[in-house]
Amino acid sequence: MRLANKKVIALVEEEFEDLELWYPILRLQEEGATVHLVGKEAGKTYVGKYGVPAEAAYSFDEIDANEYDAILVPGGWAPDKLRRYPEVLQFVRQMDEAKKPIGQICHAGWVLISANILHGKNVTSTPGIKDDMTNAGAEWHDEAVIVDGHIISSRRPPDLPPYVKAFADQLAK
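Structure (tokenized):
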């Protein structure tokens, strides 16, 4: 399996977009990656927009982002909460500085905006935050997936297959 020995942080918070969290996790696990659900509270069960649960295995203060190979930020309303945690912004900045894959889909771009890492990057997102992305200095494109170096972005659930493939391809490098 091409992603054996790869460790990925999957951020979780209330009202994540169910498919945008679980589809990438399951696909990466199928390829051999270890994916840890990380939230503000370890052991807490967070509930997605459509009722799918996700239990955080670790809290933000229990992990060291340097020990991971990539990070996934789901969409839904969770990004608006996640971007308020200094630890989350630090994780994203550490991944960015190390040029490790950062996956963001739908509203997850808000987290990257708050981490201040999008200036000059080519990205996509849900069209609803296009202005936020461009105001952060990014070049926004209406495409299923955009790969700009180590940042992999996507629009919404119908784009999950090409998004997760592109993310896995970057992680495999």
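Residues 34 and 103 are 15 Å apart (CA to CA). The first helix runs from residue 18 to 30.
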